[in-house]
Amino acid sequence: APALPITLVTRGVPDTTRRAIEAMGTNRVKLVVARSEEEWSRALPQADALYGGFSEADIKAAKHLRWVQY
Asked: What is the pLDDT of residue 3?
């Protein structure tokens, strides 16, 4: 079983998706919405999952990455 919470990093998600993720509880999923490239770059090393657009460099920077959703 994966260590919890899983850190899910995104540049943004639809409100319905955000609410569904938040409903899981912060003990299961830590949602990080990066509002700038600086926040994105800072969050990547802790990311277990990426949601939305990302590059090959982003994937390499996400050292704990286990899941991507586009």
From this structure: 83
Q: How is 29-54 classified by DSSP, letter by letter?
A: EEEEE--SHHHHHHHGGG-SEEES--
Nearest alpha carbon to residue 11 among 41, 19, 20: 41
In this prediction the pTM is 0.89
pLDDT average per 10 residues of sequence, the chain (70 residues): 88 93 93 97 97 94 94
DSSP state of 67: E
Residue pair 27/44 in contact (Cβ under 8 Å)? The answer is no
Contact 32, 49 (CB under 8 A): no
Q: What is the C-alpha separation between 49 and 23, in angstroms, rounded?
A: 17
Query: How distant, in Å, are the alpha carbons of 7, 41, 53 from that of 48?
Result: 5, 14, 15
